[in-house]
């Protein structure tokens, strides 16, 4: 048994749909425009739901809460970095204007599933996989995730 602990990065992503379009963020990675769902790392003082809402607001300016859990992915990036990605679904009644607050986000786009699935500039294979998973009928209730005794006081 190894002495080192396995410490994957915990990330949160939102597949946001309105009017049959999906909300994507564009960021520059090594100078190239790259598409991703609104997503980012979980911070120490927040629940998974709070983190997903924060990332959505920071990257798009939209305030919305996850409505269901789509999938939990365990993934190792090309550089060997391990990730656990919680992917949530949010269905909005209409496409909303976006106002990114995160300086890493160049802009936001409402795109069709076909445009995303055929894009050559996705941040990771999980972007495509998450959209394909969204297109399946199964959804998991948020009650499957419990933040047991998870308060900011606990961390101070």
UniProtKB/TrEMBL annotation:
Question: Which cofactors, by name?
Answer: Mg(2+)
Q: Which SUPFAM superfamilies match?
A: Nudix (SSF55811)
Q: Which domain of life is it from?
A: Bacteria
EC number(s) stated in the UniProt entry for this protein? 3.6.1.-
What are the record keywords, sorted? Hydrolase, Magnesium
**The keyword Cell inner membrane is assigned to this record:** no
- Identify the residues that the record assigns to the Nudix hydrolase domain, covering every copy: 7-135
Keyword presence, Nuclease = no
* Self-association and partners: Monomer.
Q: Which family does it belong to?
A: Belongs to the Nudix hydrolase family. NudJ subfamily.
What's the protein name?
Answer: Phosphatase NudJ
Q: Which gene is transcribed and translated to give this protein?
A: nudJ
